[in-house]
Amino acid sequence: MDVTRNEAQESLAAIEVMMQKMRRAAASGGTHYFFILWGCVWFFGFLGSHFFPGKTGGYLWLGFDILGCFASWAIGMALRHRVRNAGDNVTGRRIALFWLTLFLYCLLTVWIAGPVDGKKLAMIIVIFAMVGWMAMGFLMSLSIVRLALLITAVTVAGYFLLPDYFYLWMALLGGGTMIGCGLYIRCKWQPS
Amino acid sequence: MSGLNEIIHQPVRLRVMAALTVLAPGEEVDFAYLRGLLEVTDGNLGAHLRKLEDAGYIAVNKTFIERKPRTFVTATVAGRQVFKAHTEALKAILKNGS
User: Fold this and answer.
1) Would the CB atoms of B22 and A26 count as touching at under 8 Å?
2) Which pLDDT score, from 0 to 100, does residue A186 have?
3) Which of A112, A143, A178, B11 has the fewest CB atoms within 10 Å of its CB?
């Protein structure tokens, strides 16, 4: 068969575009759903902490977290058959184990550092969550690492520079960044 | 030119193979997900997949999940080899200018 130079160039370009599209779609999976979901949890949770300080804010957080966990489970179940591995899913199980271990280490840190006030507790949780995100980012996409670094920087800046508005800061910039990132991934990476 | 493959060279089939070879061996992708990624119609994708399957370059696995029929597609070892040879031949054309 005869293929001209132009045709070869166009074919290689089409291959490159498709491979990048598939790589991103497969790597992100349903990441954008989780970003948007947990961005909303952060947004409303921190708003609750700002406007209802004390126990009410804590109960609101608990409620939002439980909702977030159920919604994450539902999303995970809905997305699990898009790309599947015919063999044993060892990587998936190891990732789940990693998050469980990180959660237990976070609890241990809070227990040893305690008693901690609401802001310090929020800082510790955010730091542990961002370490987890960065680990996932190094596995899947460096843009997640960049986002985790940005959220960490925003959190630390808010903690030290705006202590009176820390929760509001976290709702708008922490939650807002996650929602924005989720929407960006949805628009740029995912098939329609 | 050796290495070029007429079946794979068709634009939609070329993109199908490009998408499938990105996945690790043993990984398979859902038909509907692949259709969305390629931005083609059901019928169009189905016809091209049949051609690739007949050539032995992909494997199509029809199954039921939660009582709903689902189709999964994966690149075979032969398909991966032919696709690699095809892309190398394309690169050679660019390099040699012929």
Assistant:
1) yes
2) 74
3) A112
Nearest C-alpha of chain A: how many angstroms from B9?
Answer: 8
Instruction: Read off the pLDDT band of B29 (50, 70, 90).
Output: confident
Task: Quote the minimal CA–CA distance from A54 to chain B in Å.
Answer: 45
Q: Check CB contact of B60 with chain A, cutoff 8 Å.
A: no
pTM to 2 decimal places: 0.62
- What's the average pLDDT block by block, 10 residues per block, for chain A (192 residues)? 87 91 71 86 91 85 90 80 61 79 92 84 88 85 83 89 89 85 73 51
Q: Do A83 and B74 touch (CB under 8 A)?
A: no
Judged by DSSP in three states, A132 sits in helix
Residue matched to tokens 């696709």: B83
**B11, exposed or middle or buried, with CB in 10 Å at 0-12, 13-18, 19+?**
exposed
Cβ neighbours around A118 below 10 Å, total: 15
The pLDDT score that the predictor gives to residue B58 is: 95
In a domain, B36, yes or no: yes
CATH, residue B42: 1.10.10.10
Q: What is the ipTM of this complex?
A: 0.90
Range of the domain at B40: 6-96
